[in-house]
Specification:
Elements (H helix, E strand, L loop, with lengths): L7 H13 L3 H14 L4 H13 L3 H14 L4 H13 L3 H13 L6 H18 L2 H17 L4 H13 L3 H14 L4 H13 L3 H8 L10 H14 L10 H11 L4 H9 L10 H11 L16 E5 L4 E4 L1 H12 L6 H16 L8 H10 L3 E3 L2
Antiparallel strand pairs: 1-2, 1-3
């Protein structure tokens, strides 16, 4: 007996499962097989578009989203996905129109959609230093909170946007509210701890850092800060067993060398140089700013920082201001800070084998110190 064809919904469901598992190629195969049978299925066109977007095939994703919207012009997921794709293609005004259209059509009560749009704008704002995108992201997060005031995720996202817009007092209140709603929201707790650290509220920062696990952290910055706070406030020795799990997590995060990294190391090896284990590298980094909090009991730390680069030039200010000035004087002023940090990181890796983090200014500067490109004075 012949096997009956799957329905379009079944094709979409199977592809969606593969997509959630990160198997984008396999999802595309299923979706295209379904479209061969159901060429007018909006959901399958949207599914293809999101898979192409995940594969960074932006031109193809745009075409697929537009095909879906021809069939159903008011499809909310299609509008949100097309907006995200247009952002990637630099067509900002058209992207924002797509996002705003979801509100005009009455989808404000779709919390997941509001968070999706807000995150898209937030990510692009972070990459391009666009305050207007942070403001737009905040607006969508506020809409989500208005619709679901007890959603810890929505409240936390609003806090992230408020912080990036310089409203730290409100951001702290939002993040604390998020943790009241869900004490296990690790991302919100780490973000709150970092804001408190930046405000020299070290004991409060450590309180939140200590309520996270090593696996909650996906970048080195929070772990560096947690270790230094433990050593300073709890008077722990650097080899204390309580720090071991955090050192091991640093090793995991610092040891992720991909195929491109391996190729670069083979093309530009460091002759005669020994490569320190990742944990030793991280420990060396801690020693570079190990005295940062040594006088916490006596005085608050001055939030302004100063570095000296290898040619003797000095830069001062906030971490972001220092990177911006380095870019203007040592790089190309027309480049974004992200482009400057990425280019510097790639060059340093070819020269030293040390990967400099580029996800924020402070991690970039501290990683540059590990690589020997500069010295942190304060």
């Amino acid at each position: 007996m012949a096997t009956p064809f799957l329905s379009s919904e079944e094709y979409d469901e199977r592809a969606h499962q593969l997509y959630n598992e990160g198997q984008f190629d396999e999802a595309l195969v299923i979706l295209r097989e379904g479209l061969a049978l159901y060429p007018n299925s909006v959901e399958l066109h949207v599914g293809v578009a999101y898979a192409e977007l995940a594969r960074e095939e932006y031109a193809w994703a745009r075409r697929s989203f537009e095909q879906a919207l021809v069939l159903e012009p008011e499809h909310e997921d299609g509008l949100a996905g097309l907006g995200e794709t247009l952002l990637k293609l630099g067509q900002d005004e058209a992207a924002v129109r797509c996002f705003r259209r979801t509100l005009e059509l009455g989808y404000a009560d779709d919390i997941d959609l509001m968070l999706q749009v807000g995150r898209s704008l937030f990510r692009e704002a972070s990459l391009r230093e666009r305050t207007d995108f942070f403001e737009a992201a905040r607006d969508f997060f506020e809409t989500a909170v208005q619709q679901a005031p007890d959603s810890a995720e929505a409240v936390a996202c609003l806090g992230y946007a408020q912080h990036r817009l310089g409203d730290d007092a409100t951001a702290i209140a939002s993040l604390r509210r998020s943790l009241q709603l869900d004490s296990d929201h690790a991302e919100a707790r780490i973000y709150l701890a970092n804001i408190l650290y930046d405000q020299s509220e070290y004991e409060a920062a450590l309180y939140h850092f200590e309520r996270t696990t090593p696996d909650d952290h996906w970048d080195e910055l929070g772990i560096w800060r947690l270790i230094e706070l433990k050593r300073s406030l709890h008077r722990l020795d650097e080899n204390d067993p309580d720090l071991k799990v955090w050192d091991e997590r640093l090793s995991e995060l610092a040891g992720g060398i991909d195929d491109v990294d391996t190729m670069l190391m083979e093309l530009d090896p460091r002759d005669g140089a020994d490569t320190a284990p990742a944990a030793e590298t991280a420990r060396g980094q801690l020693e570079l700013f190990g005295s940062l909090l040594s006088s916490l009991a006596e005085a608050k730390w001055d939030p302004e920082h100063q570095i000296i680069v290898s040619d003797g030039a000095e830069f001062g200010g906030s971490w972001e201001e220092i990177v911006r000035r380095m870019r203007d004087e040592k790089g190309h002023p027309a480049h974004s800070m992200q482009e400057f940090m990425s280019a510097t990181s790639q060059h340093a890796f070819r020269q030293t084998g040390i990967r400099i983090p580029t996800h924020d200014a402070e991690s970039f500067i501290r990683g540059s110190a590990v690589a020997g490109l500069l010295r942190i004075v304060r």
